[in-house]
Amino acid sequence: MFLELKAQAISILKDAIRKVGFEIEDSELYFETSSHADLTSRAAFRLASLYKKNPKEIASRIVSAIEIPDGSYVGEVNASGPYINFRAGRHYLNRTVAAVLEEKEKFGCGAPKDRILLEHTSANPNGPLHVGHIRNSILGDTLARILKRAGHDVEVQYYVNDMGRQIAVVSWACERFELDLSRKSDAAIADVYIKANSELDKNPEYVKEIDALMENVEVGDIRTIERFDKAVFMAIAGIKETLLRLNVVHDKFVNESRFLKSGAVHDIVERIKATGRTKTDKGAIVVDLSDYGFEKTLVIQRSNGTSLYTTRDLAYHEWKAGQADRIIDVFGADHKLISGQLRATLNAIGIKEPEVVIFEFVSLPEGSMSTRRGQFISADDLFDRVTEAALEQVETRRPETAYEFKKQIAEMVGMGAVRYDIVRVSPEKSTVFNWKEALDFEKQGAPYIQYSHARACSILEKAKEEVTWNSSGKIDSSLLIEDSEIDLVKKMAMFDSIIDLAARELKPHVLAIYARELADAFNQFYRFVPVIASEDEEVRAARLALVECARIVLANSLDTLGIEAPESM
After folding, report:
1. 355 in the same domain as 253
2. φ, ψ (nearest 5 deg) of residue 301
3. How many structural domains are present in the chain?
4. Mean pLDDT of the region 1-19
C-alpha cells in the first residue's frame, strides 16, 4: 500500500513542479519518510540549485500548485520551510484495512519478477554446522523468503564440496578410524575428521596419502570417488537435519565434482588461458587480475595438474549463469577476496557475475570456532540449549498447560529467537549471539513479536465467545480514528515497501526491525484502546477487524523471517 501512496505522491508532485515552470528528474525528487509526515520531498533544494532561487519560496510555490485527484491516497500536502510534506488520507487507511482482510497471506506480495539462483550455507561436509555457519543459513534463507514475497522466482542451492582437500581427509579418516554410528551422522564424521587432523599434524608423511586421494578423484578413480561420496552423503544428511530444525530448506544440492566430470572445469581453464592473463608460478597456473585491482594472483590449477575449489566454483557459476537472470551468493567475510577475484575472472571471460552478500561473523561469548581443531559448539547443541531455556520460561508463564504444548512452543520460541537475533543485525556488522538476551520476552526480539501475534489470536478467540462478531462481516474502518489505530494501520501499510527495500538492497535486517515496530504499534493500540469492551457495536467490529489485520501482517512478517507464529503462548 505504501508503494502506491508514494507513486501517487510522486505523480502529484511532478505535475505541480511542471505547472510552476520547473523541470526535474524523478531521481531528484528525494522522497523519504519523516517524523513530520508520511512522506517528505526535498525536491526544492535541488530546484533551488538548478534555478538559483530560495528553496523555501520554491516549496511554497509548488504546494500552491498541488492538485489532489479524487480517490487519491494522498490527503494533504503542505510546505514546511523547504520541505514538501505529504500526509495520507482516509481513503488510504480504509483501503489498507480492506486489502489486508482480502489478501491475507498474500498481503505485501509483489508482482512477478525475474528468476534468481541464490546460494547459501554451502558449508564443507566435514562435520556438523556450528554457530559460525548459521548466520549464512539464516541470512540466505531469509533473503530467499523476502525475494519470493517481492515477486521473484527463487531457487535456493547448496554447493557441496565433495572433492577438496578437507573431503580427502574425511575419506581417509573414515577408513582409518571407526565411525560411531550411534551419533548423528555429521557429528560422527566430525569425530574422525578431528582425529585425522591430529594424526596428520603428528605424522606429516601421511599428507602424501591425502594428495594421492585428491589426484585419484581428479582422474576419475571409481573406488576413491565412492569413498568420498559415502563420507559426504553422511555429513550432508546430518546437516540437512540441522537446517530443517532451523526452518531452512534448499531446493537443490549441487556437487562440485559434476563440473569436473562434465569437462566444464577443463573448458573454463582453457578459456581463461585464452585471455592471456595466465602465467606459471612454481608449476601452478595463476590468473593476473591486477587491472581489476587485485595484487594477488588467483590460482586455478596446482602444479600437479589438479583443479582447486575456486576453479570448480568458476565452472559452477558459468552453469548458474545459464539458469537464471540473477545469481546471488551469500559468503562470510573470509571470502571477500576470493569472491572479488571470482567476479573479476568471470567478467574477464564474459560470464555474468554474481551479486555477493558478504556478512561478518557471529560468535558466542565463548569465542571463535574451528571444526579442524574440534573447538566448536555445534548448531544442534546451541539449539538444544536455547529450547531448554525457552521451555523453562514457558513452564513459568503457562504452568497449567500440557507438557507437549510447552515443548512445541519452546521449540517455536527457541528457533525464532536464534533466527531473529542473528538476522536483526545488518550483514556487514559482526555480532555476538547471546541466547539469554535473545529469549527475553521484554527485549523486543522474536518472542516479543510471536507473543504479539498470539495475543491477537487470543483477542479474536475471546471475541467469538463474548460478543457477536463475524470476522467476514462488513466493517466500517472509517471509525478507526484514534491515534494508535491510525499509527497501526499506517505501519501495516508499509509492509510492501519494507519487502521491496529489503529485496532491492539485499538487507534482511530491514524486515526484522519492521516486525518489531509492527508488534510495538499493535501493543500500543491494544494498551490504549478498548476492543472487546467497546460499547459501540460498530466500533467494536472495526477494532476487532483491525486486530485481525494486525494478526495477518504479523504472521506474514514472521513467515518471511522464517519464524513460526504461535496462536498461543
Report:
1. yes
2. -155, 130
3. 3
4. 95
Identify the CATH number of the domain in which residue 528 sits: 1.10.730.10
For 474, list phi and psi in degrees, rounded to 5: -75, 135
> What is the SS3 assignment for 428?
coil
Residue in this structure with the C-alpha cell 547471546, named with its chain if needed:
434
Q: What is the pLDDT of residues 234-262, one digit of tens each?
A: 999 999 999 999 999 999 999 998 998 89
In 125-164, which ranges are continuous DSSP H helix? 131-149
Instruction: State the alpha helices, DSSP H only, in 358-508.
Output: 379-397, 403-423, 435-438, 446-466, 483-493, 495-505
Q: In 3-state terms, the chain is what percent helix, strand and coil (to 5)?
A: 55, 10, 30
pTM: 0.92
Q: How far apart are CA 202 and CA 192, in angstroms?
A: 15
Q: How far is CA 201 from the centre of its chain?
A: 39
Q: Any alpha helices (H) in 84-125, and if so which ranges?
A: 90-103
Q: In what order do the strands lie in the sheet with 284-287?
A: 278-281, 284-287, 298-301
Q: What is the CATH number of the domain that holds 155?
A: 3.40.50.620
What is the C-alpha separation between 22 and 17, in angstroms, rounded?
A: 5
CA pair distance 147, 140, nearest whole angstrom: 11
Residue 153 predicted with pLDDT over 90: yes
Report which of 557, 183, 193, 510 is spatially closest to residue 375, judged by C-alpha positions.
193
Residues present in the chain in total: 569
- Tell me: do 286 and 328 sit in the same domain: yes
Q: Which domain holds residue 58?
A: 2-88
Within a domain: 332 = yes
